[in-house]
Amino acid sequence: MLALTHLVVGAALGSAGEDRRRGALAGVVSHALLDGIGHDDVTIGFRGQAALVAVGVAALALSWGPGSAVTAGGLAGILPDSEIALMKLRGRSTGFLLFPSHWQREGRRGTHPYRFPGPDVPVGVEVALSLAACAALCVAGHRRRRRSSRLNP
Asked: What residue spans define the domains of the chain?
């Protein structure tokens, strides 16, 4: 999945409570589950993904607060992909990866160790849904912070 999708799903799970640790744990677990869905995260490229994530993280942190469970869940959702980002920044296309859903099947580069049945998610659909979900989370965060500031002047 795109890093933006991992960010948004982790953030959405983090919004279910106030505990940053639980939000972060939910974000990491969701990463493993989402990687089981057929997807295309190569088409957008490394820079495109970095730009989408930077905008998403900034929007969520501004909407919910940088120390919120939402932001923690979102950041934890993308944390496993940092090993791929580091590999790319070093100019490598392959390497030893720690996160289980990133392991490749021997002789089948680009495949994950598990896949849920069903068709792959088209990259355009994934981007559109992730951006819409991120926008909805940001609106909810703004409303919540505005309501909270009215109650506690």
From this structure: 3-151
Determine the Cα–Cα distance for residues 4 and 50; give it in Å rounded to an integer: 9
What are residue 108's DSSP bridge partners?
105
Among residues 81, 96, 84, the alpha carbon closest in space to that of 30 is found at 81
Return the number of other C-beta atoms located less than 10 Å from residue 38's C-beta.
13
Q: Give Cβ neighbours of residue 25 (< 8 Å, ≥ 6 apart).
A: 76
What sign does the dihedral 128-76-50-118 (CA atoms) show?
Answer: negative
Q: What is the pLDDT of residues 96-146, one digit of tens each?
A: 888 888 877 555 555 666 778 888 899 999 999 999 999 999 999 999 888
For the chain, helix (H) and strand (E) counts, in that order, are 6, 0
The structure's pTM equals 0.89
